[in-house]
Specification:
Helix content is about 65%, strand content about 0%. Helix 2 crosses helix 3 and helix 9 crosses helix 10. The longest helix is centred in the middle third of the chain and has 24 residues.
Length: about 190
């Protein structure tokens, strides 16, 4: 049985109610449940939040239903590892390892989005949400998280006296100011 249908029925709600809760049509829910259409990535995220299960469970990538399993590596390993009877080791199915990587990426991206969303640099929250919703894969999310994390580290090094980092930071800052139309850093703070 389709996992979306199984989750919906377990919560004893109809297709129409689920559709309203996540912002799609009843027809879309019906097509998802029949396997005639796959949800967009953003819809998978909404479904996962609504049902409080990992995206990777809904997609069938993983059999892990409990979001808390992904909070701690030891919990996850204990949950998905298969003990060998003839050795002291354990084996983890490839799909479960991939599911862990995807869930970590989703959490990192969500945390980063929330940090940026509430920062002083955001001038249009709705536009930011629309852009986030256009990200269609965990690979794209991972790229955003990596680049943002690297830029953050560079900024920290630049602000604490690393000369090489200061040069790179100044170049990146110039590109950002030019892209957003800021004359200089002072203009950013005047707008706040």
């Amino acid at each position: 049985m389709n996992r979306i249908k199984k989750l919906r029925e377990r919560q004893n709600i109809g297709q129409k109610e689920l559709a309203q809760k996540i912002g799609v049509t009843q027809q879309a829910i019906s097509l998802y449940e029949k396997g005639q259409r796959k949800p967009k990535f953003e819809t998978y995220i909404k479904l996962a939040k609504f049902f409080n299960v990992p995206v990777t469970y809904i997609t069938g990538m993983s059999d892990v239903k409990d979001m808390k399993v992904y909070d701690n590596f030891d919990n996850w390993l204990e949950h998905v590892a298969v003990e060998y009877s003839d050795s002291k080791g354990a084996k983890v199915a490839r799909n479960e390892a991939m599911a862990l990587a995807r869930e970590i990426t989703l959490k990192q991206f969500d945390a980063l989005f929330k940090a940026v969303e509430y920062s002083d640099s955001v001038t249009n929250e709705k536009e930011l949400e629309k852009l986030r919703d256009k990200i269609s894969s965990s690979s794209e999310m991972s790229d955003v998280v990596f680049l943002t994390g690297s830029t953050f580290q560079l900024a920290l090094k630049a602000k604490t006296g690393d000369g090489k980092a200061q040069k790179a930071y100044n170049q990146i800052n110039k590109i950002i100011n030019n892209y957003f139309g800021y004359d200089d850093e002072e203009e950013i703070y005047e707008r706040l």
